[in-house]
## 1
Amino acid sequence: MEKNTDIELFEKLRKVAHRMRWMRHDHKRPEEDGPRHPDMHRMPPEGMMPEAHHGPRRLPRERILTILNEREEGIRQRELAEKLMINPSSISEAIDKLEADRYIERNVDPSDRRATLITLTEKGKARAYEVEDERAEAFSRFFANLNEEEKKTLSELLQKLLGNETDPE
């Protein structure tokens, strides 16, 4: 399913919000020198989201399903975590629950038998399509006050804010 403009804009806004959270907390990147307060966490590697100060970040199951729906051949857990901008170890519990609910399955990667690919089951695909439709409707309402030209301008402005980062996939 091809992403529409509203979904692309929302993904860019999410990235801007992520960046703004780091700016608000005045975190330093690991390569920066200088004293740090003992409670200050380092910035994660580019594209990775840290666990919140209050414990692990809750992962929306629906977001995982939509990402998996974009990859018919499956995806490795590490790559899925990167797309979610979290630490790979933080996703294990969510993956286990989705597997127990029969939304996903784990299969041996044919290109590397030591690796595992996560794929959607038919039940998972059906739910992923429902979620994508729900998201598209919600995003359409969210951006309803903007015409197509304004959406395009907003997208370009958000991309400027993100700098050299690539568009969301």
## 2
Amino acid sequence: MNDDKKTCLYDRHVKLGALMSPFGGFIMPIQYKGIVEEHNAVRTGCGVFDVSHMGEVSVTGPDAEKFVNHIFTNDVTPGKSGQCFYGMMLNETGGVVDDLLIYKNSPEDYFLVINASNIDKDVAWINRNAEGFNVVINNLSDHLGELAVQGPEAEKAMTGILGIECSDLEFYHFKKLPYHGEEIIVSRTGYTGEDGFEVYGSHRIIEKCWDSLMASGKVEPCGLGCRDTLRFEVALPLYGNELADDVSPLEAGLKIFVKLDKPEFIGKEATLALLDKGVTRKIVGIELLDKAIPRHGYEILNDNDEVVGHVTTGYHAISVDKSIALAMVDAPYSALGTPLKVRIRKKTFPAVVVKKKFYTKNYKK
């Protein structure tokens, strides 16, 4: 634990009595008052997350757009300045190096947001693949902090408490603006299935924003515990669970973010080959017909008690009051309505394949 990093808000989390635990190489708040209360605050009001553990990388230069398209599954070319893109970086065998957000400032200026646990790996991979491109790559992760302000009352908190005008932002768009003598980035993005914003700035600015939000008494500080329950209910993937370096986006059900009509990108040939051959396993939704709780790694069985998959994420979901899971299962068992079993310790519990999106997203239209 002594080797784990601390975000710029660490002391504030401790002062608020947060349960702190290692995550992705950082010591992060898991919960404050409790996961259920924080989860419900985001679904019904506004919750604020410290996500300063996430990594940020800038890619600039004459070949920035060409290079980003080379390492990214989505296509950033038709996008306008101020637009965000979700997608993945793939290895040569078509597995996921990481999933990430890319912010387009201009064709010569991109901002990449990567997962905390993958920062060193991703930066090395990006630099390694930049050979032959006229680009400059800067790892900004140690210099920037990030807040996620999420929930149906998020816009009100951003404007009324922080004085940041953001009503003009469409979903998956961002803008840069001056704030207390510095420049910040504000995007209408998030990881909860609710409307919300993410704010990037210097450590001083992020501390100032956090303090203002907490002093208002109108928002709830939220830990990574409910960040996971929230994203899970709307089937947003988590790297290391639904995605990994040996998992294809096709297996994860994310083909929509893989633009196979692009001229080329790393992993395209392997993805096309898998598409032609057909996947042998898929991420699906599972509902237990019992109150037992499935957890990551638990085995999925067929009627003959043969192992046909495993749970990637599982909870007794807070918003829908059901024991549900995302699971990687063999393709013959992936159809909706397929009866399965989940082994929990020494017992098995009946389950059925259901739609992955257990809860309806409430993004701004």
